[in-house]
Amino acid sequence: MTVARNRIAVYPGTFDPITNGHIDLVDRAAPLFERLIIGVAESPGKGPALPLDLRVQLARKAVAHHENVEVRGFDSLLAHFVDHVGGGVLLRGLRAVSDFEYEFQLASMNRHLIPEVETLFLTPAEQYGFISSSLVREISRLGGDVSGFVPPAVAAALQAQWQRNHR
Hints:
Elements: H1 3-6, E1 8-13, H2 20-29, E2 35-41, H3 52-62, E3 69-74, H4 78-85, E4 89-93, H5 97-113, E5 118-122, H6 133-141, H7 152-165
Parallel strand pairs: 1-2, 1-4, 2-3, 4-5
């Protein structure tokens, strides 16, 4: 792996929606790399609540305070996306021990698909460890207040999405 690739990290995910936990990881990882690319996966198999273009737009707003962070949507194999952007590090978040087995499996598969890329695991700050996009979506869908878990623009977008779906 070249030194230049080491300086570009890719933080992939569905980000449906991006949460304060995701932003916390970006805030801590951004100073470690020359560039940090948030790769927002289309992930049609997961049946995302928010369309890809909106998830990309919301993520861009959420991390706009970082000059070296960019957000891109993708609909390909992660290994192809990482290669396309010249990434040398995959950034993944681990909230709890329960995340480890799945993340370890992904890291092992990615090591076979893109052996020149290393996976780096970061844990969120304690106050964000319980936040997940799926919980945020469910709370919002049922009319709960998610403002403590996501940026204001995300809370508004979720509320608008559920109102559109219930007309």
